[in-house]
User: Which sequence fits this backbone?
């Protein structure tokens, strides 16, 4: 029987691996693999170990580039960290397609972030309102040492509002606070301000003589930023004449536009489709968010909440044809940083940001949104024409061959063979077996 372990985090990395090996791993293979992924450069390995608690090894993801993205007139190569075989190829295809059709037009619409102090107050809402107005300047003053630097960079606290939520939960109120955090994602800044607000609000209430003793005893439940940022929005768009859309002739191109728009309408009204449709968008978004050291969980949560803002989960992208022009666009919330966090720590993140020419957080919002829109264009284009499997399996063939321990020569021959053949898992296995039988026949004959 497995016994719980106490003080695990205090063990050395070697001791942790030894315990893991003894307790959970069946063979020495697991232990060997964990060590195999250590970096030879001890300083670098140490940096990675210190990112998180109980780190045992490194977990690789491919880091690739999708070039030829024309964004607001500037040609960019977009770094992406992703394991799904076809994502970078699809992004590159979409980039190439739109590069000759005016490129991507992107605009950051606003950059406001939100945090809340949630508290319970038993008493007169009017008295609380008056107290809040008196206390508000004190709340601002109480965080002046935290906000000084941010204000120098043009950011800070934009607003603090008292919100009465007693219709939802008895005695429940919020300090709903808005922030501008410039090039940082701002989580630490926002949370530090909120915790200070909570302390100040609580202690000021205690000494507010107009409150009864019950009113003075307001209860702070929690203080935390919100990853829902519907006022931190970026809009990305592509457009071209319908005639320039894929197809042998104008009629084909028109039919493509119609089918594409119908596919988007389906994703707008049908949640089963919308989730997969938006997942395809997130293939592009997450890959850039990860490569640039940002918090993809925050981005995911915020975007999916936004996709449900009208009470039903729906497509993030939209398309139309007006006066012979095809337009395809998306608006999404994105809270990103290009300073702080992992951005100036992780060596590959630093390279990614250098590839992007050291973008501001607004520029990174634009680039990430474009990666999402491009990904969705590529996916829907495949879906309404060839189907998704053709392109996907072409890229996936390497994974199938690696699972079968194919040699370099076998890979070369089979990738060549499948250039013009349909790739399915069973077709690849069959061809590999054929090749192996032929090879063993040849070696016996020798
Ligand atoms: C696969 O990772 C993503 C797609 O399913 C997206 C979509 O269906 O639009 C291809």
Assistant:
């Amino acid at each position: 029987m497995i016994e719980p372990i106490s003080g695990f985090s205090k063990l050395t990395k070697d001791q942790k691996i030894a315990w893991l090996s003894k307790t959970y791993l069946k063979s020495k293979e697991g232990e060997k693999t964990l060590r195999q992924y250590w970096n030879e450069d001890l300083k670098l390995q140490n940096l990675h170990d210190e990112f998180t608690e109980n780190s045992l090894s490194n977990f690789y993801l491919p880091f690739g580039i999708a070039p030829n993205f024309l964004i607001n007139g500037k040609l960019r190569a977009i770094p992406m960290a992703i394991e799904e075989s076809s994502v970078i190829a699809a992004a590159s295809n979409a980039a190439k397609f739109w590069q000759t059709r005016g490129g991507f037009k992107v605009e950051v619409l606003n950059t406001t972030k939100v945090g809340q102090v949630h508290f319970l107050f038993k008493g007169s809402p009017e008295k609380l309102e008056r107290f809040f107005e008196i206390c508000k300047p004190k709340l601002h003053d109480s965080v002046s040492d935290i906000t000084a630097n941010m204000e120098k960079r043009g950011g800070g606290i934009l607003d603090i509002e008292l919100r009465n939520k007693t219709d939802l939960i008895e005695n429940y109120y919020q300090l709903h606070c808005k922030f501008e955090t410039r090039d940082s994602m701002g989580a630490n800044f926002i949370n530090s301000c909120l915790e200070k607000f909570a302390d100040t609000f609580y202690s000021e209430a205690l000494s507010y003589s107009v409150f009864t003793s019950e009113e003075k005893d307001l209860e702070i439940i929690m203080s935390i930023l919100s990853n829902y940022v519907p006022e931190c929005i970026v809009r990305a768009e592509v457009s071209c004449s319908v005639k320039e859309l894929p197809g042998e002739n104008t009629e084909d191109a028109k039919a493509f536009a119609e089918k594409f728009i119908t596919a988007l309408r389906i994703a707008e009204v049908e949640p089963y489709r919308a989730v997969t449709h938006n997942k395809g968008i997130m293939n592009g978004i997450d890959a850039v968010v990860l490569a640039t050291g940002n918090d993809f969980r925050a981005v995911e949560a915020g975007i999916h909440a936004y996709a449900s803002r009208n009470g039903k989960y729906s497509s993030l992208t939209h398309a139309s044809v007006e006066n012979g022009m095809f337009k395809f666009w998306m608006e999404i919330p994105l809270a990103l940083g290009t300073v702080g966090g992992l951005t100036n720590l992780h060596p590959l993140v630093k390279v990614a940001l250098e590839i992007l020419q050291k973008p501001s957080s607004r520029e990174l919002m634009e680039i990430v949104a474009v990666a999402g829109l491009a990904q969705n264009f590529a996916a829907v284009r495949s879906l309404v024409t060839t189907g998704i499997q053709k392109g996907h399996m072409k890229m996936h063939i390497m994974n199938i061959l690696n699972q079968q321990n194919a040699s370099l020569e076998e890979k070369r021959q089979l990738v060549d063979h499948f250039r013009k053949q349909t790739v399915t898992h069973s077709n690849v296995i069959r061809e590999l077996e054929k090749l192996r039988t032929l090879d063993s026949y040849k070696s016996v004959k020798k």
About this structure: The chain has a mean pLDDT of 96. The first helix runs from residue 13 to 23. The first strand starts at residue 63 and ends at 71. DSSP finds 16 helices and ten strands in the chain.
